[in-house]
Specification:
Length: 292
């Protein structure tokens, strides 16, 4: 198995799982060479002890012949939950709305297999980028995007999940829309406003933050929203400026074994140049900023 620097790995939507039992990190992402046009291959995963040298790729997911989706294999996240590993990933096929499905495995390397019966996002919504969130009562939710391609002003929504994470319960709630943030600018000559890549971070003081991405000045940007009541059903306050706007986004936050807080995102936002980067963060008084 080869060892690569992350700069050698083409990847969008990077997601890092810190795996305590092995003392290593697993790196997932959208790893098909062209996620926009080519037939979906699957998701690869890489493994590292130091976040610099990565073993791989390992085939984390490959679809069976009867799998419902054949394209747009996007944004896999893997969460340890109740003794298993759950992958939340986006899929699409012609005539079927894009959506996030839940897959399951016994180990971070996989192989991941379908767990939910197709997408757990609403079947008549174009959706993407589902992420797991467990609320203060220990109840699981999925936070996801309702796409601008269907509703023009994209939104970020949440829906309760079953205890087994295999289906949605009840109706989705809207957290906020892209245009709620003053910094967001339209794409495609004004056709719509993008919401991408939600990820929840709970600060040490209990503040709940939500990372998400959109566009400004034609470039992909990473932003942060803040819950006024510390839960997902509260009012979300938008910081006036993105935390990162150098044509990168779809981020997540993880803590190293040494205790350092890092923001993972991809940049530039152009195929096949996209690469994962890890940026040190400073957390203070319920806020985050890039370390100087």
């Amino acid at each position: 198995m080869q060892t690569l620097k992350k700069e050698q790995i083409q990847m969008r939507d990077p997601f890092v799982l810190r795996h305590e039992p092995e003392g290593c990190y697993y790196l997932y992402g959208s790893t098909d060479p062209d996620i926009w046009k080519s037939k979906g291959i699957g998701f690869d995963v890489y493994r590292s002890k130091d976040l610099e040298h990565w073993e791989g790729p390992f085939p984390a997911f490959r679809p069976e012949a009867n799998f419902w989706s054949d394209k747009n294999y996007w944004a896999p996240e893997v969460h340890a939950y109740s003794g298993k590993y759950y992958m939340f990933a986006t899929f699409k096929t012609d005539g079927v709305c894009r959506g996030t499905q839940v897959l399951i495995a016994d180990h971070p390397l996989g192989p991941f297999v379908p767990h939910s019966d197709g997408p757990v996002t609403p079947r008549d919504w174009e959706c993407l980028d589902g992420t797991l969130y467990v609320d203060g009562q220990g109840e699981p939710w999925m936070i996801f995007c309702h796409e601008w391609v269907q509703i023009v002003n994209g939104t970020i929504c949440a829906i309760r999940l079953s205890p087994g994470l295999d289906k949605a319960i009840g109706q989705p709630i809207e957290l906020f829309a892209a245009r709620d943030a003053a910094w967001v600018e339209p794409v495609k000559n004004g056709l719509g406003y993008v919401t991408d890549g939600p990820f929840v971070h709970r600060c040490a003081d209990g503040t709940l933050l939500l990372l998400w991405s959109s566009f400004r000045g034609g470039r992909y940007a990473q932003a942060i929203a803040r819950s006024a009541n510390g839960e997902i059903d509260g009012h979300w306050e938008h910081l006036p400026e993105p935390i990162y706007e150098s044509d990168g986004g779809h981020g997540m936050i993880f803590r190293t074994f040494g205790g350092e807080l890092l923001l993972a995102l991809h940049t530039p936002n152009k195929t096949p140049l996209e690469r994962a980067v890890f940026l040190p963060l400073v957390e203070q008084d319920g806020r985050l900023k890039l370390a100087e």
